[in-house]
Amino acid sequence: MFHAYVIVCAATLSFQIYTDSCFVLNDSWGPYRTTENCDIRRKQLVDDVLNGILQDTVSMMLMYPEQIYAEGICTKISNDVES
């Protein structure tokens, strides 16, 4: 099983990242049985942060930075696969 999450940080227009501003957004839909399904969700989360429904909220949480840096990650949480 795999879990998706996104690391989000404030950044400058030249993408200098302010590491002291970073936080993690955990996916509430998972876990996922395959890495492929987790990757699909990871990409959706990054898109939601940068261009979608989470953009305004994240921007406000970061105090309206010049840019937002977001990187989606999938981690293996168990070897179990539910039937």
Strand tally is 3
Q: Which class of secondary structure composition applies to the elements?
A: alpha+beta
Q: Average pLDDT value?
A: 91
Beta-strand content:
35-45%
Describe the oligomeric state of these chains in a short phrase. single chain
Main sheet attributes: strand count, strand direction, barrel closure: 3 strands, antiparallel
Based on CA atoms alone, the radius of gyration comes out at 14 Å
Coarse shape: elongated
- Whole-Å distance between the termini? 12 Å
Widest sheet: strand ordering: 2-1-3
Order of helices and strands: EEHHE
Short description:
This protein has 83 residues and is an alpha+beta fold.
Structural commentary:
It is a single chain. The chain is of the alpha+beta class and 83 residues long. The chain has one domain. It is 28% helix and 36% strand. The chain is built from 2 helices and 3 strands. A 3-stranded antiparallel sheet has the order 2-1-3, with helices on one face. β1 and β2 form a beta hairpin. It is elongated, with a radius of gyration of 14 Å. 25% of the residues are buried.
